[in-house]
Amino acid sequence: MPLHNNKKSTIVIVGGGAGGLSLLNSLSTTIDSDKQRVILIDARPTMIPLPSTLRLVVSDADDLLKRSIHPYGDHTFRNKLTGTGIFIHASVKEIDFGKPGDGGILTLDNGETVSYDVLVLATGSTWPRPIAFPTENMNKITEHVQKIRAEFAAAQDILLVGGGSVGIELSGELRDVFTSKPITIIHREKYLLNATYPDKYRIAVQKQLEGRGITVLTGDAISASDASNVSGSQIPKDGFITEQGKTLKADLVIPTWGTRPNTSYLPSDLLSSTGHVKILPTFQLPAHPNVFAFGDIMDWNEQKTAANASFFQAPKVAKNILLYLRESEGIAKYNGSFVMIMVTNGKTSGMGYFNILWGIIVGGWISSLMKSKDLMVSRISGMTGYTPV
Fold first, then answer.
1. Quick check: 88 and 112 in contact, CB under 8 A?
2. Of the candidate ranges 33-37, 172-176, 335-339, 345-349, the one whose mean pLDDT is the lowest
3. Closest alpha carbon to 223 in 239, 249, 243
C-alpha cells in the first residue's frame, strides 16, 4: 500500500495531454493538499491539443501557433494545487516499480530521478510526421510548423496515405487553403475510418469529401504505405503504382495513419501485442496497484479519443487514486463509453456520429458549430489555466 510516514504522498502524472490535464484538474478540487502533492511530467514544454494541429500545420489561419499551444507552468496547477504542483519537462527513460503497492522511481532523460507513491501513465499516442512535433522548445515547434506549411504550399499534387480521422481532417484543411490543388486520400479498407462506425456514416463522409473535389481511393494501398517511412525521397519518378493498378503522381506524400501508443519506455511484459498497457477495469496495472494508466495507451476495446480520456476516464482515475491512498473501498470500474466521433472538413463542414438511439449522424452545420469552426481552441485555457497574450 502507499508509503506511510510523515511526508506527503506524491502523485506523478506522466503526460500532460487532454487526459493528463483533465486528471490534474479533477485532482485539483478533490485532493487533500496537506497529505498529497502532484508532479506533472511531459516530454514537451507545451500542451498541443490534437484537434487544432491539422489546421495549424496547413496555414497561419486563426493564429493557432499563439492561441492553441499553451506552455506548462505555475498556472497549470490551480485550486488546491496552487503553489504546490511541480512541472518537469522531460521524458521517462525507465521505471523502477519497486515492490507491488510500494512507491517507485522514475529515471528521466534529463538525468533526474523522481520518486512516486502513485504513478499515472497518460502518454497518449505517437502521431505521423505532420503532427509529430519536436519536444525541445517552442522555437523548434514553430520551425516544424513552418516547414510543413511550406511543403504544402510548394506541392502541386498531394497524396495522403490513410483515411482515418487524421487524413480526412487534413484533406479538409488543405482544401480550405488550396482550393484547386489535387488532393488524394488512399485507404486500405473498403470505406474510410474503420469498422467501429456504420457503413452509412463512412460512405457519407467520403461523399462529403468528394463533393469538395478531394479524390478518395478506398480498398487500395501503395506498397510503401507504412506511415513511419513514407517520405519525399521515396516517391518514384513515374509515380506510385497502387495495389489495384492505379498510377499516382503526387509530388508530396504525407503519412496520415500509423499512430502508435506512446509506450516505448515501458517493459514489454506490461504491454499487449499492440503495445497498449494492460490494465484492470479500475485503470490499475495488475501487478502494480499504485500505477494507473488511461487514455490512448490503455489496452481497452474502444476508440482512442481525447473525449473518452477527458470526460469518461479521467474523473474515475482521480477518484480511484484518492480511494487507493485512503485505503478505502469502492474503487470505480470502467465500463467503457458510447461510440462517438466528429470529423471536420475544413472550417464550415464535417460530419459526426453518435451511437445513441438508432445511431445519429449530424452534418456540416452542427459539426461546424461543435468543432470545425473553432476546433475547440476557445476551451483550451479552461484546461491549461493559461491565457495567451
1. yes
2. 335-339
3. 243
Alpha carbon distance 373, 60 (integer Å): 15
If phi > 0 it is left, if psi is from -120 to 50 it is alpha, else beta; for residue 350 that is: left
- DSSP state letter for 277: B
Task: Give the integer Cα–Cα distance in Å for 156 and 142.
Answer: 24
Distance CA 332, CA 281 (A): 8
Q: Name 271's bridge partners.
A: 277
Question: In terms of Cα–Cα distance, which of 39, 41, 38 is closest to 14?
Answer: 41
Q: What residues contact residue 386 under an 8 Å CB cut-off, 6+ apart?
A: 70, 71, 73, 75, 76
The sign of the dihedral angle between the CA atoms of 364, 365, 369, 372 is positive
The set of cell numbers assigned to 8 is 506527503
- Mean pLDDT of the 159-171 span: 94
What are the φ/ψ torsions at residue 258 (nearest 5 degrees)? 110, 20
Whether residue 215 has pLDDT greater than 70: yes
Radius of gyration of the chain (CA): 22
User: What's the pTM?
Assistant: 0.93
- Give φ, ψ of 135 to 5 degrees: -110, -10
Round to the nearest angstrom and report the end-to-end CA distance of the chain: 45
Residue 84 confidence class, pLDDT cut points 50, 70, 90: very high
Among residues 46, 66, 64, 41, the alpha carbon closest in space to that of 54 is found at: 64
User: Which of these, 212, 213, 193, 189, lies nearest to 202 by C-alpha position?
Assistant: 193
Strand 92-96, strand 104-108: pairing: antiparallel
303-308 average pLDDT score: 90
Exposure string (b/e) for 312-344, b if CB count within 10 Å is 16 or more? Answer: bbbbbbbbbbbebbeeeeebeebeebebbbbbb
Cell numbers standing for residue 222: 501503395
pLDDT digits (tens, 9 = 90+) for 224-279: 654 455 555 567 778 888 999 999 989 899 988 868 999 999 999 999 999 999 99
Q: What is the pLDDT of residues 116-161, one digit of tens each?
A: 999 999 999 998 889 999 999 999 999 999 999 999 999 999 999 9
- CA–CA distance, 145 with 167 (Å, rounded to integer): 17
